[in-house]
Amino acid sequence: MTGYRGRFAPSPSGPLHFGSLVAAVGSYLDARAHGGEWLVRIEDLDPPRTRPGAAERILTDLAAFGMEWDGTVVRQSERFDRYAAAVEQLSRAGVLRECLCSRSALARLPENESRPPGTAEELFHPATCLPPATYAAPGPALRLRVPPGSIRFDDRSLGPQSVCVAETIGDFVLRRRDGLYAYQLAVVVDDAEQGITDVVRGCDLLSSTARQVLLQRALGLPGVRYLHLPLAVDGGGRKLSKSGDAPAVADRHGPAGQLVAVLHFLGQSPPAALSRAALPDVWDWARAHWRIEGFAGCAMRAAPLGASAGINTG
């Protein structure tokens, strides 16, 4: 690969846990193994979900693990003008529509009844809005008019992907009813402006990729290469997440021990002696031996014992 530029983009809704550490390490290793740059972006797009001090703690943890980022840290909360400009561009192109449908009304549609209660995943929305009785305050959301047909993209681990967004999600939100911009819009605008060539992240975001490809095309932005890492789940098969109050990365083995645990999780097969090595030596081995074949095609894996019930680092 030439001109590689990757990124790690955590949301400050909680501390760095094992699942987010996997995404950080995977994106960092893939960038450094290809001689590329690695940027950090704080996705504090949703103020109600942002925890005070979480962003600073995440950056401190990344530094403690020996991950050095290139350039300055970008914060989405300082970039609303860029998102507004993208919405205006799409509005002029005639591909947006207003929507006053409430989430509770959408949840009662047959397409959404099977979704787990409280899921953060966007609900399916048909091509036309629901009857006025289902409308909700405040003002309208703005949705992208999704064209029919499948969106195809390649994933370096999972292979060719094909998703019909019109059938799985439908017209999706770019600006919410409360005026906040949606993740799908912000990540596409930010990746393009930062010159990101490669997105390496967890498989929980695989379902977002087709929507982001659609937006790249609608905005006339360059595409990127994708690599989705195995998703870390607990013993019950539940995703480790900040919103689910997954504990911070455990310190019982120190940064080097945690890094070795991530390498095992990603199928890198580190030698036993590496668990007793200094942190710089662990990174040297990891960069030299990085291979996606260790986890290729794997959608999820159980986190190592203790990762979902570890000792907080703070």
What does this structure look like?
- The chain folds into 2 domains: 133 residues, 3-Layer(aba) Sandwich (Rossmann fold), CATH 3.40.50.620; 151 residues, Rossmann fold, CATH 3.40.50.620.
- It is 31% helix and 16% strand.
- The chain contains 9 helices and 12 strands.
- The strands form 5 sheets. A 3-stranded parallel sheet has the order 1-2-3.
- Helix 1 links the parallel strand 1 and strand 2.
- Helix 6 crosses helix 7.
- It starts with a strand and ends in a 12-residue tail after the last strand.
CATH fold assignment of the largest domain:
Rossmann fold
CATH architecture of the largest domain: 3-Layer(aba) Sandwich
The CATH C-level class name of the largest domain: Alpha Beta
Low-confidence stretches: 242-246, 308-314
Give the number of DSSP strands: 12
> What is the domain total for the residues?
2
User: Order of strands across the biggest sheet?
Assistant: 1-2-3
Write the element-wise H/E pattern from the N-terminal end onward: EHEHEHEHEEEHEHEHEEHHE
Kindly report how far apart the N and C termini lie. Answer: 38 Å
